Input
Amino acid sequence: MQLGVLCRLPLAVARAVLAALRGRLGALCWSLSPLSLPLSLPLPLPGWRGVSAPSPAAPAGPRRERERQRQRERDDAPPTPTSVNYHFTRQCNYKCGFCFHTAKTSFVLPLEEARRGLAMLKEAGESYGGASSFGEFVGKLVQFCKQELKLPSVSIVSNGSLIRERWFKKYGEYLDILAISCDSFDENVNVLIGRGQGKKNHVENLHKLRQWCREYGVAFKINSVINRFNVEEDMNEQIKALNPVRWKVFQCLLIEGENTGEDALREAEKFVISDEDFEQFLDRHKDVSCLVPESNQKMRDSYLILDEYMRFLNCRNGRKEPSKSILDVGVEAAIKFSGFDEKMFLNRGGKYVWSKADMKLDW
Ligand code: SF4
Output
């Protein structure tokens, strides 16, 4: 998840962001000066079941036919989203070679529009997450989701490189979970992968963030993408020492148009590993109780992803095909094109204790 650089945003959008954040310019400059802040936020809302109204054309035939009709109506109903990932910008300060949400646009919705979309999702009864942006922009969305929408859980996924302690001081109380991406505890491997920015040490920063999560009462999570360069690594000790509530372990995934194919901004083929390699990595870490594995198949259909225009991205055909924006057609019309597989979502353990109020956290 990535954060846009203000100077690279369309002027109107930059103005809207600045207008939305006026009066906070000091903080804004601080947030913007280090260029980008890659974050992503998963925000679970109360469960919602899209229930379609009984069809007036339902035949009054025998019981079996009525059951079939009800089944057809259930099949046509929109999926039941309990968590959505909102990637509010595609800009990022890292250059991970396998990135599958690349900087194809620099668009970021004005804050008010993003709020409107989030409120629409809330109204539809689902949950959502979101991607990175400026510290203040993200902070305000997190605060809005927690305070005004009263979502049970708000989380951010980020590479963590631009999160500062002052952000925790100001917004930590509204955040349930902070997930930081870390693929290796060997800094040389991180550099090889592209998971880094100049001289900053990604692993040192990870430890700093872990400590702030303790101090400010935010649950800490780690996401790792297993690829050709880290597949042999033994991370047992480091993960146990960091003691995250959840360690998501993804198998490196190819997405046409993002990290593979002619119009892609990355060529991730050299990072890809076989299912057997992935299984071996999992086996090496079977004693880590918080490990949650995600194979390619699980990843493709089991996420509700909103892009920077608030369009659902359907990954079923191996590429990201956008729906219309929920801001234009509403949640229910857009979500039908999301490709979301609710069974797979539940199967991968997508629904878990995600509100810090419900966690027994050992800070
Ligand atoms: S995978 Fe790397 S480059 Fe892509 S958004 Fe995440 S941190 Fe940025």
Remarks:
- Residues 1-41, 43-60, 126-133 have pLDDT under 50 and may be disordered.
- Residues 4-53+65-354 form a domain with the TIM Barrel fold (CATH 3.20.20.70).
